[in-house]
Each structure stands twice: as structure tokens, then as C-alpha cells.
Automatic annotation (TrEMBL):
GO molecular function, one term: DNA binding
Keyword Repeat included in the entry's annotation: yes
InterPro entries according to UniProt: WD40/YVTN_repeat-like_dom_sf, WD40_repeat_dom_sf, WD40_rpt, WD_repeat_DNA-damage-binding
Protein name: WD repeat-containing protein 76
Keyword tags: Repeat, WD repeat
A GO BP entry: regulation of DNA damage checkpoint
Gene behind this protein: Wdr76
Signal sequence bounds: none
UniProt organism field: Casuarius casuarius (Southern cassowary)
Subunit organization: Interacts with CUL4A and/or CUL4B.
Family to which this protein belongs: Belongs to the WD repeat DDB2/WDR76 family.
This protein's GO CC annotations: nucleus
Its biological purpose: Specifically binds 5-hydroxymethylcytosine (5hmC), suggesting that it acts as a specific reader of 5hmC.
Length: 446
């Protein structure tokens, strides 16, 4: 029957379908339906019965809490909770390497081959200008003003809330990856204007919280979820497993230009160092840095021995060369935040600046997204040392660009094609391209 040629995921899926069919057959639902129809069409008797008097206690209305009524304390109705996926629809992803087969692998293999071929082709081309530079403010503002959003450049790429995005450094093709709450990764060739331009893969079981194309080899897409760090290698059409842990991974960044080693942050506050060249899926070093939780880690662009970690209310810089299991002291602490910090990143050219996002709204900037939206992360424009991009709660919905002084330089908006909050954003390293991702899996490319 050809089942021996299927992957473990495909065999598991077919097994689930077969077992479900047998179960529903055993229920004999067609017989039950016939009996119900007979009862429903039975002629009712004409015997009149006296109405039973109501008891006093029956008239008492039972109190229901605001939570059960789905109403906020302010009296505003809460949004509906999205339906949870069925276990059969999203089977668990096994450990180890996974074939790079999309969710609908049986339906359209030709278009899948096309998008993977595109990824391979653009990864072989090197960008013309890899040197980082900073424009003057007016020239930079003019470049922002020239960027627009069209209907063709809006697409639902993944099924659920976007937690991370990455953009390929290609200067000829706009190629974007988005990771969502369900562990799915969507790949979108924006230049392809047909439905086949995007495909969904499922390499993780949990939210894809961090993702980068390798700066050394963009044919590799590294993605991180709670329990695993994987590398999608398009040349071999496989999602390799680099590191696995029972603990909850939160973020990662590359420690070297060749992308062979990474620093990984954990939700329990610790960090680990992982070397991709060593066999197995364990880390080389685990270090307690004294955080209650570590949300993001980011490596200095010039002096790569330094990395910055952001946690509950902590933002600290550490030297990876002196990390040990316990008793680690930061090189520098950036104090002042009074609430939880969502992210902290070095500026892209010199690393002399750090931008953080915190629930205390320090830029007089409303970033209290609530429980239904992914928390904002302010990211530097890789082409501009002193300007960063961040989502906004303002209306009309928009994505904002600030200077490091706190001055608002530009707002990206389009009342026709952008009607939602873009919590996660990514900027192309050399071209004037910005991608915003919302909490329903939709991408907007300016």
C-alpha cells in the first residue's frame, strides 16, 4: 500500500484516521438517527396536563461571575476564546530530524517544490553591500515615506497568533518566515502572487518564539520553541534538531559570525550555550544568571563575547567567556524598569545603544497589549544605528519608527489593508522592506 515509504508523521496521521473511522462505525450513528426521527415524528397525545406550580426557590436566578459571563470588570464583553485544535488534527511532533514536508503534503507537491527551490536559489546569491551604514535622518525619513502597502502584499501565512518572524537577506526576492502559537512555520515568497506562494510546515509542538535565517548560510532557518531548537536546512529538505530540553526555551542568538554556536535563554531564568557542531542535542553549558525568567537574549554586533538578557524587570549584560553554573555577575545592569520587560536588543552597527520594551510605557508609548496579542518587541532597523521599529495600539492601526531620542519619525499605516495590531515586526537588512505580523497569522509587507 506504499505506507512503508511514508514518514513517521504521515504513518501516525493515517493510523489516527483509521482508528477514528472504526470508532464512529461502532457507534452505529445511522441507527440512532432513525430512532430519533421516529420519536420526533410520533403524533403527540391530546391529554392536557396541569401546569406544575413554580417553587419560590426555582425563581431565584443563580449568580454567575463576570469571568463565566465573559465580561471584563469594566463591563466590556471579552473576545471569544479561539477554539483549541483537535488532538487528531495536530499530532505531536516527534524528536529528531523531520522531513521538510508541508502540512498539506499530499495535495500540491509541485508548488512546495517551487517554494523550496526559490529558497535554495536565493540563498546562493550574496548581497552586494554587506557593510553596515547609517543615513542622515532626513534621507532615512524619505526612504520610510516611500514605502507603501498594497493588497497583494497582505496574506494569512500561518493559522494562529504570530510569535516570531524572519526575513531572508535576498535582494532579489522577498522571502519571509513566520512562526505561530501552534508550532507552525509559514514560508511566503511575497513575489509569487498566487496561492502557492505560501506553505505551512509543522516542526514544533509549541509556540515558535524566536527565529532567524543564519547570517552565515541563509539556506538554514533556525527556529526555537519551548522544548527544541531546530535548523531547517532547505538543501537537504529537513528540520534538524540542534538542542532539546525538558525546560522551556524562550529565545536565542548567534555567538559567532559563522553561526556555529548560540546562546539560548530559558523561561526559568537560566541561559545555555549550544555548539551546533557537536553531536547530540544537549547544551555545552548551563548558567544561572539570577533571573526569575529570561525572555530575550541578544549578542553584541561587534564584541560578540557580550550578550544582553531581558527578564522580569531585569536587563543585564554578561560576558559569555566567564559564564559558570552559578554565581554569575553582569558586566552592566540597565536599571529603571518597574514592570516586566518584553525584550532588549543592541543597536545594529556599534552596539552602543540598547532598546527595551516594558509594560511601564517609558516612551509614553502604549504597549499594554493584554492577553490576546503577542507582546511588542522593539527592533532596530539593521540599516540605521539610531532608529527602531515597534508595534502600536494607536488607531488607525500602525507600526511606528522612533529615533533613539524618543522622537517619532514615521508611522506605517493603511486604513484599507492594515486593520490590526502588528506586535511582531522584521526589517530587511539592506532593502527598504518592513513586515508586520498580527495575532491571526497575517503578514503585511511595506
Amino acid at each position: 500500500d506504499g505506507s512503508s515509504q511514508l514518514s513517521a508523521y504521515e504513518r501516525k496521521r493515517l493510523k489516527n484516521i483509521t482508528e477514528n473511522a472504526k470508532f464512529f462505525a461502532s457507534l452505529k450513528l445511522h441507527e440512532s438517527a432513525a430512532r430519533l426521527h421516529k420519536i420526533a415524528t410520533k403524533v403527540p397525545s391530546h391529554v392536557t396536563k396541569r401546569a406544575k406550580p413554580k417553587k419560590a426557590e426555582d425563581e431565584t436566578v443563580r449568580r454567575r461571575s463576570m469571568r463565566l459571563q465573559r465580561v471584563e470588570p469594566s463591563g466590556v464583553p471579552m473576545p471569544e476564546i479561539p477554539a483549541q485544535p483537535e488532538a487528531e488534527e495536530y499530532p505531536r511532533v516527534p524528536a529528531g530530524p523531520l522531513s521538510m514536508v508541508p502540512e498539506n503534503q499530499m495535495e500540491d507537491s509541485k508548488s512546495t517544490e517551487e517554494i523550496l527551490t526559490t529558497w535554495t536559489r536565493i540563498s546562493e546569491m550574496k548581497p552586494n553591500d554587506t557593510e553596515k551604514h547609517t543615513w542622515d535622518v532626513e534621507r532615512y525619513r524619505a526612504s520610510l515615506n516611500s514605502m507603501t502597502l498594497s493588497e497583494d502584499n497582505v496574506k494569512k501565512v500561518v493559522k494562529n497568533r504570530i510569535y516570531s518572524m524572519a526575513i531572508h537577506p535576498s535582494e532579489s526576492t522577498i522571502f519571509v518566515a513566520a512562526g505561530d502559537k501552534l508550532g507552525q512555520i509559514g514560508l511566503w515568497n511575497v513575489n509569487c502572487k498566487t496561492e502557492e506562494g505560501a506553505h505551512v510546515f509543522i516542526p514544533h509542538n509549541y509556540p515558535v518564539s524566536c527565529m532567524y535565517f543564519s547570517p552565515f548560510n541563509p539556506a538554514h532557518l533556525l527556529s526555537l520553541s519551548y522544548d527544541s531548537l531546530r535548523c531547517g536546512d532547505v538543501t537537504r529538505a529537513v528540520f534538524d534538531e540542534i538542542c532539546r530540553s525538558e525546560e522551556s526555551f524562550s529565545s536565542f542568538d548567534f555567538l559567532e559570525d559563522n553561526a556555529s554556536t548560540v546562546i539560548v535563554g530559558h523561561w526559568d531564568g537560566s541561559v545555555t550555550v549550544v555548539d551546533r557542531r557537536t553531536p547530540g542535542t544537549s547544551s555545552e553549558l548551563s548558567a544561572n544568571i539570577g533571573f526569575k525568567r529570561t525572555r530575550t537574549v541578544h549578542v553584541h554586533p561587534v564584541n560578540k563575547q557580550y550578550f544582553i538578557a531581558a527578564g522580569s524587570m531585569d536587563v543585564c549584560i554578561y560576558d559569555v567567556r566567564y559564564l559558570k553554573s552559578n554565581g554569575n555577575k553582569p558586566v552592566s545592569s540597565l536599571d529603571g524598569h518597574s514592570k516586566s520587560v518584553a525584550s532588549a536588543y543592541f543597536s545594529p552597527v556599534t552596539g552602543n545603544r540598547v532598546v527595551t520594551v516594558c509594560a511601564d510605557d517609558k516612551l509614553r508609548h502604549n504597549n499594554n497589549t493584554g492577553r490576546w496579542l503577542t507582546r511588542f518587541r522593539a527592533i532596530w532597523d539593521p540599516k540605521q544605528e539610531d532608529c527602531f521599529v515597534v508595534g502600536s495600539m494607536a488607531r488607525p492601526r500602525q507600526i511606528e519608527v522612533f529615533q533613539d531620542t524618543g522622537k517619532l519619525l514615521h508611522s506605517f499605516y493603511n486604513v484599507d489593508y492594515l486593520g490590526s495590531v502588528c506586535s511582531i515586526n522584521v526589517v530587511h537588512p539592506t532593502k527598504n522592506i518592513l513586515v508586520g505580523g498580527n495575532s491571526s497569522g497575517r503578514l503585511h509587507v511595506f
